[in-house]
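**Polypeptide and fold**
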Amino acid sequence: MDFLDRSIRRARFAYFSMEIALRTEMHTYSGGLGVLAGDSAHSAADLDLPMVFVTLVSRQGYVRQEIDDGHAQVSRPDPWSPQDFATALPQMVAVSIEGRTVWVRPWLHALECPLGQVIPVLLLDTDLGQNAVEDRRITDALYGGDQAYRLKQEIVLGIGGQGVLRVLGFSIEKYHLNEGHAALLTLPVLRATRQLDGDHRSDPTRGYDISAVRERCVFTTHTPVEAGFDKFDYDLVQRVLGDYIERDVLTHLAGADELNMTRLALNLSSYVNGVARRHAETTRKLFPGYTIASITNGVHVHRWTHGAIARLFEQQFSNWAHEPEVLAFADQIEDGALWSAHEIAKSDLLARIAQATGKQLRPDLPLIGYARRMTAYKRPELIFSDMGRLREIAKVQPFQIVLAGLAHPSDGGGQEAIRALGAHIDALAGAIPAAFVPGYNLDVAGALVAGCDVWLNTPLPPLEASGTSGMKAALNGVLNLSALDGWWIEGCADGVTGWSIPTNGADANDAAALYDKLRDVVLPLYHGDRGRWVWMMKQAISKIGPSFNSHRMMRRYVTEAYLR
């Protein structure tokens, strides 16, 4: 396999992520973290970076969403066939789980960019005849099961993944941990530095070369709250991981009371970053004493730009996909051409909505979109806080709403939010056309970020780490209306690239501020000044596109993290 041999010879950096969104048919992602990893991989291929990506095969996927007659999410398995998109490699490595030998085999997916470069993605699999029945299921369900199941998956990802790279012959200089799920990969790197004559009495890590491990690891944290970090009871760790590493070493590096994967990654990485400037500030407060840099997330421009918009970019500057900086000149696009391309994207979205829900939304009314992981801090119901006021606004300045998003099967708040959104849509019948599109995935997300007129985001600050869907919308000239949190603090020029929603953390006040912005600014502009609206569309593309893209992000990772 010439491609793999070439990749092994040249790869210097390995990117580990529990999930990765490479294509819709490969169900190895759940949401933003996986989409970011997928965009990173696509940019790595475009830029011909010497990288390899490592993840789990997740044979049963995350969630195939159905919505029942009561508006509740019905969560189904979402299986896919690795053999349709990847090649099973013959090499295997063994990890010890609960005292049993568990074999891990990689599948190789060759990710090719339009320019011809290819990078390897390794999908780790335990569904092998050599394994016990319960161990064959470890790489089945993305984020499924209990704490023990999650710990087993993270052993396979971190320890198994590091071993797979070694047995394949990769010589990795830097490991990039995309969130704490991959933190256990630091342990085999640590074990390789063990000095038998180390004095453990004053410092349990004395026998290890901690600095050598840190020099090889880069850690990106995405979680802005302590409760969101993966933590495991040490008795569980002892039962599942055994004596792979001394317990006093783990308690020294990962926390005295429980194994905190984020703290382990922090202590064994020389470079740590948040995914937006505000997120890095929040993380520094959570972990005082650590140096936390910031590299704001970006999105892959070619992947998320609608075909009709992309054709305009091609006509204006043919190198836009490889050099997104030239999107700074998108403000020179002719108004009518941009609006016509937007109408095509909107028409495509309306057709998808009609097919999925049976609802015919109107192309002449402004369409407000909200689509993301359904969980409490994102406040998906905020726009419906005062139904009476919402109806009054729509009487004078009509508009439409489209929503989509998945909730984790164990997230009761997210599940209830989906049910409530369906009830709100029913209650607005005859006043405000609205639809919830089921089966949220890459294709649905792509249609939504391209076809809406306004992209709504209402997180409770400072809990939005980044929020990349708004970047994707902006690439297509869709205007953001968002609370000032995550990336939007950096990207918002109010009245130019979109609008901010003043927030103070109280839902009633924040909803009132949202309604005021809709009634007084956003809707009057759409209905009364098309020229200014299109001008703002061009400002959003030309000011956000050149900076908030994954090419810029990956170049920064290489120069600031990998090569330091």
